[in-house]
Predict the structure.
Amino acid sequence: MSQPVYDDQNIFAKILRGEIPCNKVDECDHTLSFHDIQPQAPVHILVIPKGAYVNMTDFSENASAEEQTAYLAALGRVAKMAGVTKDGYRLIANTGQHGHQDVPHLHMHILGGHALGRMLPARS
Ligand code: AMP
C-alpha cells in the first residue's frame, strides 16, 4: 500500500499548532494526549505523535527511534494516568480506508473505564 501524503490541514495538525483547543491529558517532547471530543467509553483518550505521520505504517517506517520510544512510553504513561491499567483497557489505531480512519494523523485511542465487549462484532 503506498502511503498517502500528509495533509497539514487535518484537525490534529491544527491542535498541535495551537489553532484549535484540546482537552490535554499529557504532553512530552514528541507526543500530545487529549480527551476524544466524542467519547465512546468513560475513558477515551487520543495519543498522537507531534511529528507529521499519517498512520502507524508511516510512523514505523519514518519516525526516529527516539520518537517511536517516546510514543510507546506515552501510551503506557497515559493509560496509567487515566486509571485503567488495573481493570484493563483497549488500544486502537484505525488505519486507512478498511480501518475506518477519519483523521489522517497517527492517533491511538485508549479506551476503558468499563467492560468493552468483544473486539469486533460478529460478521453477518
Ligand atoms: P479515527 O476514526 O480513528 O480517525 O478517530 C478520530 C477521532 O478523533 C474520533 O474519535 C473523533 O471523535 C476524534 N476527534 C475529532 N476531532 C476532535 C477534536 N477536535 N478533539 C478531540 N477529538 C477529536
